[in-house]
C-alpha cells in the first residue's frame, strides 16, 4: 500500500489549515459579486475576507484576486488589523490548495501584523495555523502549545477545540511512525486525552463541524486498530454532519479513508466508486495534495489486482504531482521560509532597536539642553535674587543711614536745646551777679566815702569772676553755632569720655583761637592750655602732627 504516514500527514495538515477559518459553501453568483462590490465601496475589507473564507470557489482565481486586492489596500493604508486578517485568509487559501510553503509564509506575516496591531486573538490564530502546515511533528506540538495562552486569554473556544483535536492527531501520527514499541501506549493515551479535552469543550459549545471532526478522529483510531465497521460508521457520521456545511476537504479526506477501508475488506467495487468520488471532488476544487494520496492509492491498488496499464498510468500521475507538490510543500522549503522570516524578524528588531537608540539619543540631547537651560535659568534666578538681595541690603543701609541721620538730627536738636538752655541759664546768672555786684557796690559807696585797698582788691576779685562767667557764656554761645553743635554731637558719640571742659576747648579750637587766646578766655596759663590740648589729642586719638582743624572738618563731613 501507499506510504500511509506521508499520505495521512499531508491530509491532516490541509484539513487543519482548512479548519482554522471555518468555510461554508456559498453560491458564486452575480448577487455575491454585487455584495462584494458594495463592501469595497464601504471599505469593509474584513467582511470581504470573511466571504472568501466561507466559500469553496471552483474558480480559484476569483477569491485569490480578492485577497490580493485586500492585501494591497491594507498595505497602502497601513492598517495592521486588515493586514493580519488578510494574511490569515491568504494562508488558509494556499493551505487548501496544498501550497504549504506559501501558506506558512502568510501565517508568519499574519503573526507579525497581529503583534503590531496588538490583536492577541489573531496572533494566536496565526501561530495555530503555522502549526497546522508545519511538517515536523515535534515542531507542530511546540507551535500548538505556543498558541494556547493567546487563545485561552481571548476565550477563543472554537480554535481551542481545533487545537486539541490537532494535537491529538499529531500524537496519532507519532504513534504510527514510532520505532520504539514502548512509546506506542504513551502516544495513544496522549492522543485520546487531547481528543477528550476537545470533546468536553464542544459539549457546551455544540459546534457540528467540530463534532464531525471528532467522529473523523475516532474513525482513524478504529481503522488503525482494524475495527473497520466502527471506522466506517464514524466516517459516515462525520460526512453526514458536514453535508450542510460543505466542508470539502474533510469530506474528501473521509471518502479516501472509507475507500481504503473497502480496499482492506476486499470490497473493490465500493473502493473504486468511493475513490472516484474523492478524485472528482479533489480535481473540482484543485486540492492537489489529496490527489497525490488518491493517485498513490490507485497505483498500489491496480498493481495488487493485476492491472499493470492502470498501475503505470497512476504511477506517472502520482510522481508528476508529487514532484509538483514537493516544490510547494517540502519540509526544507518550509524551513527556508521560517529561516527567512526569522532573518526578517531580527532585521525588524534591529531596526526598531536602532530607532529606539536614535530616540533615546534625541531624548538625551533634549534632556541635556533642558538641563542646561534649567541650570542657566537657576543661575540667572540666583543672580537676579542676589541682585535683589544686594539692592535690598543697599536700601536697608540707606534706610538705616536715614534713620541714623534722623536720630543724629534729633540728638543735635536736643544738644542745641541743652546748649541754649545752658546759655540762657548762664546769661541769667551773670545778669543777676552783675546786678548784685552793682547794687552791692552802690551800697558800699554810699556808706563809705573812701575805699580801702582791701575793698579795691575785693572789687577786683568779684569783677574777675564776672569776667570768667562772661567767657563761659561766650563759649556756650560759640557752641550753639550749627556746625560746631554738629561737631560736638558727633565727637560725643565717637568719644564718650570727653568732658565739658574738653568741649569748651574744642569750641575755642574750632573758632581758631590760639593757645594764648584760649588761656585768656579760660583765665588759665599757657602751660595749662598746652596740657589740655595734649590730653584732648589722646582722647581724640590724634598724632602730634595731626591738625585739629582738618580733623574737625573731616568729622563734620562724615555721614
UniProtKB/TrEMBL annotation:
Keywords: Membrane, Signal, Transmembrane, Transmembrane helix. Residues 512-539 form the HTH luxR-type domain. GO terms for molecular function: DNA binding. It holds the Pfam family GerE. GO terms for biological process: regulation of DNA-templated transcription. InterPro entries: Sig_transdc_resp-reg_C-effctor, TPR-like_helical_dom_sf, Tscrpt_reg_LuxR_C, WH-like_DNA-bd_sf. The chain crosses the membrane at residues 360-381. PROSITE patterns: HTH_LUXR_1. Residues 1-24 form the signal peptide. This is Regulatory protein, luxR family. It comes from Soonwooa buanensis.
Amino acid at each position: 500500500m501507499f506510504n500511509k504516514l506521508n499520505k495521512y500527514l499531508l491530509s491532516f495538515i490541509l484539513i487543519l489549515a482548512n479548519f482554522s477559518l471555518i468555510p461554508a459553501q456559498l453560491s458564486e453568483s452575480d448577487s455575491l459579486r454585487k455584495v462584494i462590490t458594495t463592501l469595497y465601496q464601504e471599505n469593509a475589507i474584513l467582511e470581504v475576507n470573511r466571504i472568501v473564507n466561507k466559500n469553496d470557489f471552483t474558480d480559484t482565481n476569483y477569491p485569490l484576486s480578492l485577497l490580493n486586492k485586500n492585501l494591497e489596500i491594507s498595505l497602502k493604508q497601513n492598517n495592521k488589523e486588515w493586514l493580519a486578517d488578510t494574511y490569515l485568509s491568504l494562508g488558509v487559501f494556499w493551505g487548501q490548495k496544498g501550497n504549504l510553503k506559501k501558506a506558512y509564509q502568510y501565517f508568519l506575516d499574519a503573526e507579525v501584523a497581529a503583534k503590531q496591531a496588538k490583536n492577541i486573538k489573531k496572533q494566536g490564530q496565526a501561530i495555530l495555523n503555522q502549526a497546522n502546515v508545519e511538517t515536523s511533528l515535534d515542531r507542530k506540538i511546540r507551535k500548538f502549545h505556543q498558541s494556547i495562552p493567546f487563545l485561552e486569554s481571548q476565550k477563543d473556544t472554537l480554535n481551542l477545540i481545533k487545537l486539541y483535536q490537532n494535537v491529538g492527531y499529531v500524537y496519532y501520527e507519532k504513534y504510527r511512525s514510532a520505532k520504539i514499541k514502548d512509546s506506542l501506549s504513551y502516544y495513544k493515551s496522549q492522543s485520546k486525552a487531547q481528543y477528550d479535552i476537545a470533546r468536553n469543550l464542544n459539549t457546551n459549545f455544540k459546534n457540528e463541524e467540530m463534532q464531525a471532526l471528532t467522529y473523523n478522529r475516532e474513525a482513524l483510531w478504529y481503522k488503525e486498530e482494524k475495527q473497520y465497521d466502527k471506522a466506517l460508521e464514524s466516517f459516515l457520521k462525520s460526512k453526514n454532519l458536514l453535508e450542510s456545511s460543505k466542508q470539502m476537504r474533510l469530506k474528501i479526506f473521509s471518502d479516501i479513508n472509507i475507500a481504503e477501508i473497502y480496499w482492506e475488506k476486499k470490497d473493490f467495487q465500493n473502493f473504486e466508486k468511493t475513490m472516484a468520488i474523492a478524485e472528482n471532488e479533489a480535481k473540482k476544487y484543485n486540492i492537489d495534495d489529496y490527489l497525490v494520496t488518491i493517485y498513490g492509492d490507485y497505483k498500489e491498488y491496480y498493481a495488487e489486482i493485476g492491472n499493470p496499464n492502470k498501475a503505470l498510468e497512476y504511477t506517472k500521475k502520482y510522481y508528476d504531482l508529487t514532484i509538483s507538490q514537493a516544490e510547494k510543500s517540502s519540509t526544507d522549503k518550509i524551513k527556508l521560509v521560517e529561516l527567512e522570516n526569522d532573518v526578517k524578524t531580527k532585521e525588524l528588531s534591529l531596526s526598531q532597536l536602532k530607532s529606539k537608540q536614535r530616540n533615546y539619543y534625541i531624548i538625551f540631547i533634549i534632556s541635556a539642553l533642558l538641563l542646561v537651560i534649567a541650570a542657566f535659568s537657576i543661575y540667572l534666578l540666583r543672580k537676579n535674587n542676589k541682585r535683589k538681595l544686594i539692592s535690598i541690603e543697599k536700601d536697608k543701609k540707606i534706610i538705616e543711614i536715614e534713620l541714623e541721620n534722623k536720630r543724629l538730627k534729633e540728638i543735635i536738636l536736643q544738644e542745641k536745646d541743652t546748649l541754649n538752655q545752658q546759655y540762657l541759664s548762664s546769661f541769667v546768672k551773670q545778669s543777676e551777679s552783675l546786678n548784685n555786684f552793682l547794687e552791692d557796690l552802690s551800697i558800699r559807696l554810699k556808706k563809705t566815702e573812701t575805699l580801702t585797698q582791701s575793698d579795691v582788691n575785693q572789687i577786683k576779685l568779684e569783677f574777675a569772676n564776672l569776667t570768667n562767667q562772661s567767657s563761659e557764656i561766650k563759649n556756650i554761645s560759640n557752641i550753639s553755632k550749627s556746625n560746631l553743635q554738629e561737631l560736638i554731637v558727633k565727637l560725643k558719640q565717637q568719644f564718650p569720655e570727653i568732658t565739658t571742659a574738653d568741649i569748651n576747648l574744642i569750641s575755642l579750637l574750632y573758632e581758631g583761637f590760639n593757645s594764648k587766646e584760649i588761656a585768656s578766655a579760660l583765665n588759665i596759663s599757657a602751660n595749662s592750655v598746652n596740657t589740655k590740648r595734649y590730653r584732648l589729642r589722646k582722647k581724640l586719638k590724634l598724632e602730634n602732627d595731626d591738625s585739629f582743624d582738618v580733623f574737625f572738618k573731616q568729622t563734620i563731613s562724615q555721614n
